[in-house]
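Sequence in, structure out.
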Amino acid sequence: MDQTASQSARTTTAIRLGTGLLQGLALFLLHQAQEAKVWPATQPLAFAPLVLVALFAPFVILAGIGALRRNSLIVWALGAAAFAAGLAFYGAWQGVDADKMPGFPVFAAIAAGLFIAHHLIQPAEAERRVVARYPAYFDITWMHGVQLVLSAGFTAAFWILLFLGASLFKLIGIDAFQKLISEEAFAFPATTVMFAAAVQLTDVRSTLVRGVRTVALTLLAWLLPLMTLIAAGFLASLPFTGLEPLWKTKAATALLLTAAAHLIVLINAAYQDGEDAPPVVLKWAARLAGLLLVPISLLAAYGLALRIGQYGLTPERVFAAAFVVIAAGYALGYTIAAVRPGAWMKALEKTNVAQAFVAIALILALFTPIADPARLSVQDQVGRLERGKVKAEAFDFQFLRFDSGRYGKAALETLKASQDPAIAARAKAAAAQATKVAPVIEKIDLSKLTVYPAGRALPESFLRQDWRDDSGSGCIGPGSQCPALLLDVNADGKDEVLLARGASFDVFSFDGARWRKTAETPYVCDAVDLAAALKAGTVRAEVTPQHDIVVGERRLFMVPAGEGCAGEALKNTGWYKVGIIQEDLQ
């Protein structure tokens, strides 16, 4: 019996290391073909599938060998290769640039899809059931997740040691070692073989891996009460603040979905396999967190719907909609789990398994013609243009030309024949562009900045000035919310305009023709809260040779905005550099 187990272990080790070696050689040969510009690199529709199959399919073998029956492993490996090849082919076919590989989303989708699918297949195969028991899903998925992190860390440590060794040999005049590890013929196979070796080492020490997993999940679980308190406090504050501050961030949906994702992960860290009940604090935190997912998901959906209603679909908003669907599914399932009597959060198990299938379905839809974000976005944006909801001069024709693949280019060809002369002319101009150009910035409106002292207003010349040229300040731009202060900082009898950029001021002076940035107070580690100081009215100028600005009990030193000739010119106006420091008033 022991001899059979030993032989099986040696076979598994050999297959894993052989798979790693073959993967490295395949990636090296494909890289060489790309460098030499020979087949298959000259045919993107063939090259992209080959690269992504070589990159991802071997991981199925590394994870499945020894756990899946031989026939099951072969079928699943072929299925994984077909999945990777199919998404890569479609990504290359409809991509923005037919001469390049598919973008990062395709890589991420293949990695996520294979990871999720593998951890639906292996537990079911192990238990000889279509749907396995939840503890099996939990055990294998989280163990492989920890293995993945440890194996990646082991591979990184391997390369750190190689570079250290090369540096040591170079100190004594021997550079052969550095030349060896710099060779791509060594780097590709060495990396993949070491990763495969790490998978094998962690697999034979699975008890230790499970121990690491348990410690990590236990630590994460105790962050759940904190995250739940934060989420509850945020939602409780909304009736008093309103939703307007949230929408002003222009990233409300992304932030809300991130919060939902953190809650989902931490709830699962507390639940684990459901076999052992956690402390009472974690029980109630998980129940409350499950309930909080509902308003957070609804707010994310509402924010996304507002943006789509205002500006139409974009690929990013289509992806965001998919994440909202996933978040809503978890919110519904976890709410049921939280309120249903009986075993604690038991319905979470079915929710997690169901959402895994939903995630795979969404990946297949988003990265095929079914719900391709580029196709849906082009269709929606062109429809808005043709219905007159967007004027031709405000429409982003460059999106069709450069950012939406073949669907956008096909739409652009159709628009070139539009009966509307303005649309046709702009479509023809966009189609003729060889490269994307920066959009023309409309006149920057600074009239909505908060001005201090209260009751004062920015000079009309400052507001009327065309700021589309580089102002040298991050506060001058569309949607700026930097507070402004009117203050005579150089004792010339004229107010300067100071824009508070975080913990520093940008100082603008009028030279009779234009407002220019003439000085700044550099950011330092021991920063002051300028926004609070402006509201409190504790900012003043002090007549010193350096024209200091005093903020409460702190002194800010001026630094000229220009260097070289510009700096010399500023010295003549009284501005000069005295050091990037900040001192307490004595």
